[in-house]
């Protein structure tokens, strides 16, 4: 990587070019770091992880690889009851707050179509959400923090979290006690529609609560030519799908946000038979806990009433996922200051209706979650998804500087 980005910013960025061999030294309070070497190392780490993706709760080799990277730097790994995931501490010599930095490590059941020379070697599995980027960036931050451990005023806990895509990983990490005694938590997610060098920081709701539903509509099958002999669940399901859309349009305050989407319908086996059952599945997205509960209650009422009107029975299975992700104002302002010091352009991003289980952490302790620009052509979960690797070192330094900023703050007072 060219050093153009890092040059001529003395006084605002702690890396200063020393010679043309890219040997950089951190300014006062920081130890020497060869930025070029570190960046190459992190890109290599990211490409290795990209070639060997693993699904949620199956990240065994990824876990071993992360442990090896940390152990080589002498970073203390914490015990855990979880089968996958890595947790570690870097403690300074002086007392201070305890700050957690979090990355996720799992991949998706998607066949990669990037054509990259380091494309996934695991058929049908891909890092299509950029968690390889997240992991490499946090490892880079860990290496910088370890190099400057003696100057840290408190403790950094590293959370390499498994199973984000399944929506259960963060809750398991909390149950495992990895958030115990932690004062604040910081995380980020790559954002392909934001250019490299730009970061999105926002106080309050940033990502949506995620709920999943499945409705099995029980009727009575009959010959298609004799519909009066049965109770048609296909007609009932059709009416229910339409009626569910009125929850948002007629029950939710227009100044609030909610989404009700039916993404799957399954029923029938042939053209001339009315089936006994039809099943529909979908998702609800909200940014407010009260709205979330209101949508659920209306959903249950509409399903019961529509099915009753057609002499059917609706069995609703509701699966609650992560709550709304709401950033703490004070922590976000500290992180915003760190982003400016890292020479990042800070923007106020639009909230995303996607969900993130980082929200579970924010139910327990204050924190901030950022959208980090990686400048790509495809969005999350696309088979051709990729990232601009020049963003990795920037993300590492952002996490490093954010951790130091929070440690140096008076947040414990």
Automatic annotation (TrEMBL):
Xref: SUPFAM superfamilies: Bacterial exopeptidase dimerisation domain (SSF55031), Zn-dependent exopeptidases (SSF53187)
Organism domain of life: Bacteria
UniProt cross-references to Pfam families, sorted A to Z: M20_dimer, Peptidase_M20
One Gene Ontology term from the biological process aspect of the record: diaminopimelate biosynthetic process
Residue sites binding Mn(2+) per the record: 129, 131, 165, 189, 381
Domain Peptidase M20 dimerisation, first and last residues per copy: 212-305
UniProt keyword list: Hydrolase, Manganese, Metal-binding
Gene3D superfamilies noted in UniProt: 3.30.70.360, Zn peptidases
Cofactor(s) needed: Mn(2+)
CDD domains: M20_Acy1_YxeP-like
Keyword Membrane: no
GO molecular function, one term: metal ion binding
InterPro entries from the UniProt entry: Amidohydrolase (IPR017439), Bact_exopeptidase_dim_dom (IPR036264), Peptidase_M20 (IPR002933), Peptidase_M20_dimer (IPR011650), YxeP-like (IPR033846)
Co-factor: note: The Mn(2+) ion enhances activity.
PANTHER family in alphabetical order: METALLOPEPTIDASE, PUTATIVE (AFU_ORTHOLOGUE AFUA_6G09600)-RELATED (PTHR11014:SF63), PEPTIDASE M20 FAMILY MEMBER (PTHR11014)
Protein known as: Peptidase M20 dimerisation domain-containing protein
Organism the protein comes from: Bacillus inaquosorum KCTC 13429
Taxonomic path: Bacteria, Bacillati, Bacillota, Bacilli, Bacillales
């Amino acid at each position: 990587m060219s050093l153009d980005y890092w040059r001529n910013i003395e006084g605002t960025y702690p890396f200063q070019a020393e010679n043309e061999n890219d040997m950089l030294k951190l300014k006062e309070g920081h130890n020497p770091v060869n930025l070029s070497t570190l960046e190459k190392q992190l890109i290599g780490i990211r490409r290795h992880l990209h070639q060997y993706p693993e699904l949620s709760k199956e990240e065994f080799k990824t876990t071993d690889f992360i442990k090896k990277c940390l152990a080589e730097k002498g970073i203390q790994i914490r015990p855990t009851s979880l089968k996958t995931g890595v947790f570690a501490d870097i403690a300074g010599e002086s007392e201070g707050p305890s700050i957690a930095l979090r990355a996720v490590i799992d991949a998706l059941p998607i066949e990669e179509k990037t054509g990259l020379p380091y494309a996934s070697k695991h058929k049908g599995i891909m890092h299509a959400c950029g968690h390889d980027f997240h992991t490499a960036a946090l490892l880079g931050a860990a290496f910088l923090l370890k190099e400057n451990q003696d100057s840290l005023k408190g403790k950094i806990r590293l959370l390499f979290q498994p199973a984000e895509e399944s929506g259960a990983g963060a809750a398991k990490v909390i149950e495992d006690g990895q958030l115990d005694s932690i004062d604040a938590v910081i995380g980020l997610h790559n954002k392909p529609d934001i250019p490299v060098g730009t970061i999105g920081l926002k106080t309050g709701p940033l990502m949506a609560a995620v709920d999943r539903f499945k409705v099995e509509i029980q009727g009575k099958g009959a010959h298609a030519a004799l519909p009066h002999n049965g109770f048609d669940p296909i007609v009932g399901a059709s009416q229910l799908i339409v009626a569910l859309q009125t929850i948002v349009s007629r029950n939710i305050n227009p100044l609030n946000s909610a989404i009700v989407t039916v993404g799957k319908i399954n029923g029938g086996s042939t053209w001339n038979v009315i089936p006994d059952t039809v099943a529909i599945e979908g998702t609800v997205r909200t940014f407010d806990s009260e709205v979330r509960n209101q949508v659920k209650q209306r959903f249950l009422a509409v399903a019961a009433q529509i099915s009753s009107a057609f002499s059917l029975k609706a069995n609703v299975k509701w699966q609650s996922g992560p709550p709304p992700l709401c950033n703490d104002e004070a922590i976000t302002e500290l992180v915003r200051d760190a982003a400016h010091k890292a020479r990042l352009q800070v923007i106020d991003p639009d909230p995303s209706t996607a969900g993130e289980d980082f929200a579970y952490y924010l139910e327990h302790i204050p924190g901030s979650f950022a959208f980090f620009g990686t400048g790509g052509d495809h969005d999350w979960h696309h088979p051709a998804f990729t990232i601009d690797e020049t963003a990795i070192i920037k993300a590492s330094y952002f996490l490093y500087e954010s951790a130091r900023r929070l440690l140096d703050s008076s947040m414990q007072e």
